[in-house]
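[agent] plan:
  1. take the single chain provided in the ticket
  2. run structure prediction with default settings
  3. attach structure tokens to the ticket
  4. add a short note for the reviewer (M.T.)
[agent] executing step 1
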Amino acid sequence: MRIRDLAPAEHDAAIALWHAAGLTRPWNDPRSDLDRALAGPSSTVLVALPDGGAGLLGTVMVGHDGHRGWVYYLAAVERGRGVGRALVAAAETWLAAHVPKVQLMVRAGNEGAAAFYARLGYERSEVTVWQRVIRDDPTCPPPTTLLG
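[agent] step 2 finished; step 3 output follows
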């Protein structure tokens, strides 16, 4: 297996894998997430490919805010073959060049993912994640208003 950055011709295959893995949500456009991840130097999408072959075995989106790294969209075509483990290791290597720690979020009830990350040495963090949608929110002024 080899791991490298996602190529433009693989965008549709990556998104299809995310759908198949149940990682997408109707209110969150995965193509927009992909485009944003590839638009700047603080994030990327890594893919696992078979040695000497074509076709995605898995993906992971990785990025950082200058203090901590984040892992998103970890998906493998088949579980139990080491693809997820290899992608997490590659994501950690990518992040280690930029930040001292990595975090990720697991949806409530996804005990399979929680167990996978625990086996890799990740620990639950006593943090509550809060959010507010700032696009399409009538109470939030457009960015041009805030910037003058």
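[agent] step 4 note for reviewer: The domain at 2-106 is CATH 3.40.630.30 (Aminopeptidase).
[agent] ticket updated
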